[in-house]
User: What shape does this take?
Amino acid sequence: MSHSVDTQLDVLFSGNAYAAAVAHGFIRQGDALRWAEVFTATQRDALRYLDSHPIPGIDCRVSSYQDLTDGPKWRHEDGKYIIGWLERGFFEPQTSASSEQEFRTKWAAFLVQLLGLAA
Assistant: This one.
């Protein structure tokens, strides 16, 4: 079954990709979610999508990202936005931004990179 790129990205950014993939008919309950077989969207598609949709962790599901004990995380410290990875309570900065617009761009790119989509 073929799904539009925007529908694929709705599923990927839903917060629970497995449940959303089942609900949208990408897979059946109990099937493995093999990303490369199910999703054809690219990183470029995902960045374009986030230009016109809420960015997870900034515009929606903020607490989901801020409450993580492991995973992508951002902090606002001393007027800078610091983007990185939190693992076992240790935050490893990956990049930073000095403006909100730069932060939005870098955070979106960071999330997209984590999806493992083709370039």
About this structure: The longest helix spans residues 100-115. The first strand starts at residue 71 and ends at 77. The beta strands are 71-77, 80-87, 90-97. The chain has six helices and three strands.
